[in-house]
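Quick question about two entries, pasted in order.
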Amino acid sequence: MNAMSFDATLLDAQGFCLIPQFLDDTQLDTISEWIFQLSHSKRGDPVSNKASGSHRRGGLRQLLERVPQLQEFVRSPGVRTLVEPVLGPSARVVRAILFDKTPAANWVVPWHQDLTIAVREQLDLPGYGPWTQKDAVSHVQPPTDILQSMLALRIHLDDCGDANGALRVIPGSHTYGKLDQHSIHGLVASRAYLTCAVPRGGAMLMRPLLLHASSKAEVPHRRRVIHLEFAAAALPGGLRWHQES
């Protein structure tokens, strides 16, 4: 792992930071094999069936539960070197998702912020809502301060350029807090966006409130991204993160 190019100041200002080289070929091949084994599992247990169905839809939720080998990886020094300068030593993974754009699952993601978190169970607390269910896991929109204290790490298992559905972002938009649709349209119309082309083995750090979008891949090759969300703070009122690695 190579995180030498990480710039925490740039992350604070822009809401994102690109790391062109993070994993080497051996690490990439190992992680890819873990995911391949899961998505092609012949076992008849409910987790395998659900995972395979999610995979056909373009990804997998609850990735650390389904690929337990990744739990050691997310605690490795290379990952911690990226996360701890931003969130401190108590940061832990609270959600893990695989996004997998393929010719059969090639979708548009409109401009948005990541506003929900995954939790163990629904508890009605002031400032938390609305609630939704995704793959039988409770999700909720928390207060803005919770989202502002989180960090996402996106690890690219394949090359991802402009023609292959790369993420587009509006630098600095995370500083505006939660945005309604009118404000999102206004920022998109008035601010220039950047396309975050990331090579195989590269990574991207981003704040959840950063405005981002992606188009369908014009050249729909495989585009697998492991999306890890980290938080340091405990949730209030007995509410618990769904994943606490």
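Here is the second entry:
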Amino acid sequence: MAEQHSYKSKCSGKERLIHATVILAGERSFDEITIEEIIKSAELSRPTFYYHFTGGKEELRAELVNRGLLDHAPTHDTRLAILEAAVRIFARSGISAATLEDIATEAGVTRGALCWHFHSKDDLLSAIIQHYGPHSILYPVIEQIELDLQNGIELDDEMILRRLAEGFYDGFTSQGDFARLAILLIYTHPQAAHILADKIVKGRKRIAEYIQKRQEDGYFCKNIDANLFVQVIAMLFAMRAIGRGLNDLLPSAHLSREETIDQLVSLLLYGMVQRHQSPSDETAVL
């Protein structure tokens, strides 16, 4: 006990806090340790703690990681929680009005935890565009379609369009806040909006190429712009996400997910004009 007291008397406040934290972290997870426990073990005050670590516990974590005294940085779940909170706050309050404190509170983390991952709102916006958006909605669906075709599973045009429509529907349903944020970006952050637009174009490229291939093969009308075709699918479900609440008041509100997708696919594939023959159901290649 005397040796421990001697150690504390010789060390600076910062080193005593670090030493106390390392001991506590040897017993359980760093995330479970409270600041109160650290200052009690170090026999220091809360003001002293924040004098050395103004960013709070997350700044202490960074110091420990930098010294090799802690094995890992905050979990990815914390970063994801911050991103999800930022999307909600930005979509609800606007980008300019939102503060990092608002986002940290929404995510249930400290300001220090947020700043561990993101130094500014611009950093958050960049990460949001990278994490959400067209690629996260479409890529898994397209990759599964291509894998099925490679494995010899026969998919006709209706099956492929149905899967794509389902991907758009589910994606925009889960990313309604992001869809509303995308509209705000056009007016408040045009540079970020251009980056997002470029990602949208790239994300839909393979679908447009599939439409063009079917046009070249003579199965789809050649006078229909392939990119506009894809835009129609995307915009229907994007507008559902953007107009959340209003959609419940419209006559089409009674349609279920399956009914909405069925009618959209039928409308796009067969049109409104009654025909004696439907488009070929030969196996398509995406």
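Reply: Residues 190-216 form the longest helix (27 residues). Residues 1-7 have pLDDT under 50 and may be disordered. Hope that helps.
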